Amino acid sequence: MLPELPALSWILLLLAAALAGLAKTALPGAATLAVALCAAILPARESTGLMLLLLMTGDLLAVWSYRRDADLAMLRRLVPSVITGVATGALLLQLASDTAIRRAIGVILLILIAVTLLQRHRCAAPGAPAAPAGHDTASSRPARLLYGTLAGLTTMVANAGGPVTSMYFLACRYPVKAFLGTTAWFFFAVNLVKLPFSIAIGLVNPTTLAVAAAGAPMVVLAALAGRSLADRMNQRVFEPIVIALTILSALPLLR
C-alpha cells in the first residue's frame, strides 16, 4: 500500500511526522510546517488524510502526557462556540470562495496576535495587577465566544484552528504545561470528530494508513523528546516561540 516515492520525499515525510509529534508536546504551531511539507510531497487529499492520522498519533501521547495539566472546565465552556464556528464555516464554504475566506481568516489572525501582544504588554507594565492563569478577561464569556467561534470556523474552512487556540490560551496566561495540556485535549477532541468524515470522503484510506504507520514511530519519538523539552522550557522562552510559530501559521493564509 506504500506509494512509490523518491528517497528525499520519504525523508521529508519522516521530518513532517517528527514535527507533528513535537508540535503536540512542546511547540504548538510546528504542525503548520509539517502540513506544508506533506502538501509539497503528496496530492492534497492524501496529504490531508495523512496529516490527520499523524497528528492524532501525537494527540494520544499528548493527552496522556498532560492528562493532569489540561483545563477541562475551560474546554467544556468552549464547546458551544466551537460548534457555532464549525456550522458558520460550513455555511461560508457555500457562499464564498476558499481564497477569500482564507485571506479573511489570515487578517483576523494577525489582528488577534496584535491584540494579544498589546494586552500582554499592558499587563507587564509597571504597577499593572497580575492576572492568575486562566482567569483574566480572556476567559470571559465574550472572549470565549469570539475565540471559540473563530477556532471552529478556521478549523472547518482552512484546518487553521491552531493559531486561534494558541493566541487564546496565551491570552489566558496559562503556564507551559497547562497550555500544552489544554491544547492537546482540544485538538484530540476536534480531530476525533473529524476522523469519521475523513474516512467517509476517502481522505483516510489504505494508502494514507500505510504511510501513517510508517511515520508513527517518528511521531512517537519526537513527541517523547518534546515532552522532555517542555519539562525544561522556561515560560519566557516558550511564549515568544508560540507567538512566532503562530505568525508563521497565519501568513500562508494571506496568499
Largest sheet composition: none
Helical proportion, percent range: over 70%
Spatial separation of the terminal alpha carbons = 34 Å
Flag low-confidence runs. Answer: none
H and E order: HHHHHHHHHH
Number of helices: 10
What is the residue-averaged pLDDT? 83
Report the radius of gyration as a whole number of Å: 18 Å
What is the tally of beta strands?
A: 0
Shape: globular
Give the DSSP E fraction (strand runs of 2 or more residues): under 5%
Structural class computed from helices and strand pairing: mainly alpha
Tell me what the structure shows:
By secondary structure, this protein is an all-alpha fold. 79% of the residues lie in helices and 0% in strands. The protein has ten helices and no strands. Helix 3 (44-65) packs antiparallel against helix 8, helix 3 packs parallel to helix 9 (206-232) and helix 7 (161-171) packs antiparallel against helix 10 (235-250). The longest helix has 27 residues, at 98-124. The model has no long low-confidence stretch (mean pLDDT 83). It holds the Pfam family TauE. It comes from Actinomyces capricornis.
Task: Please tag this protein with its features.
single chain; 10 helices; 255 residues; mainly alpha
Task: Draw up the topology in text.
Blueprint: H1 7-25, H2 30-41, H3 44-65, H4 72-95, H5 98-124, H6 141-158, H7 161-171, H8 176-200, H9 206-232, H10 235-250
Helix pairs in contact: 1-2, 1-3, 1-9, 2-3, 3-8, 3-9, 4-6, 5-7, 5-10, 6-7, 7-8, 7-10
